[in-house]
Design brief:
- The chain has 139 residues and is of the alpha/beta class.
- A five-stranded mixed β-sheet has the order 3-4-5-7-6, covered by helices on one side. The protein has a two-stranded parallel ribbon with strand order 1-2. The protein has a two-stranded antiparallel ribbon with strand order 8-9.
- A hairpin with a 4-residue loop joins strand 8 (121-126) and strand 9 (131-136).
- The protein is globular, with a radius of gyration of 15 Å.
- It is 16% helix and 34% strand.
- The two termini are 21 Å apart.
- The protein has helices at residues 13-16, 33-41, 69-77, and strands at 22-24, 47-49, 53-58, 61-66, 83-85, 92-98, 104-110, 121-126, 131-136.
Length: 139
């Protein structure tokens, strides 16, 4: 899952060969949305491009993707999702948000793999257990 600011769709070529599904939205630095949309329509890859935000089900979990943290926190408060992911902060965050249903929703910002205004990080985890950890990108 990618939470925004993917400027050039061509950067996805580095991971397409892995054969993994990629779910992504754009952020405030939307880049080339036309080519990103066309890239996602290519049947030879597993890219799913949703636009501004996405509500999806993966591994029997309800997931919401959005770029902005204030929007993510609001969606986590609804209790409609198991996991809400956002970008924009350029720092890794893993937190549990107490929602209106009296339960907790996990909110994650993976940070910035490109090292923009912060260390190069991503988040890796398990949807079954909802256990996630911040990892550092090594060059």
């Amino acid at each position: 899952m990618h939470c925004g600011d993917l400027i050039a769709p061509s950067t996805l070529h580095a991971i397409i060969g892995l054969g993994l599904p990629i779910h992504l939205i754009h952020g405030n630095n939307a880049g080339d949305q036309y080519h990103l949309s066309r890239f996602a329509q290519d049947s030879g890859n597993r890219v799913h491009y949703y636009g501004q935000d996405a509500s999806l089900a993966l591994g029997q979990r309800r997931i919401f993707l959005v770029h902005y943290p204030h929007y993510a926190k609001a969606m986590a408060l609804t209790g409609d999702y198991d996991l809400v992911c956002n970008g924009h902060e350029h720092r890794a965050v893993i937190e549990r948000v107490r929602n209106v249903k009296g339960e907790e929703t996990l909110r994650i910002d993976p940070g910035t793999v490109g090292g923009v205004s912060g260390p190069r990080t991503y988040v890796f985890g398990d949807l079954n257990t909802l256990e996630f950890a911040v990892r550092t990108v090594t060059l």
